[in-house]
Structure formats: structure tokens, C-alpha cells
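Running this now, will post back.
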Amino acid sequence: MSKLKKRFVAGATCPKCRAKDSIVLFKENNVETVECIECDYREQQTEQKVEPKVAGNVIGVFKP
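Update: finished.
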């Protein structure tokens, strides 16, 4: 079983609990996911939603 590689998003604030530097970004079943480690906030975005918005070396674009 492979381990999910989660990355913290520096300076990000959770839209639900407003905790700063608590958002992690990871891919789960080819779906980019952001999750707050302080509360139960979670948002997923498929590749089709991400691709048109991406420019350059951006991992993903989320608008909480």
C-alpha cells in the first residue's frame, strides 16, 4: 500500500476554521484534495477543473 504524499500550503488559511498554515494538498485517486488538519474541512477538485486554470509550474488552483 502506498502512502499519500501530503504537502502543506504555506500561508494558506482554512475557510472554515480560519486556522493559518493548516491546509494540506494531496492527490487521492487522481483527484486533487485540500484538507485542514485542524477541523474537518475538505475540498476536492478533478483534473478537468484544474487544467484550464493552470499556468506555469503550478500544482493546482483552489478557490475556497
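The mean pLDDT is 81. More later if anyone needs it.
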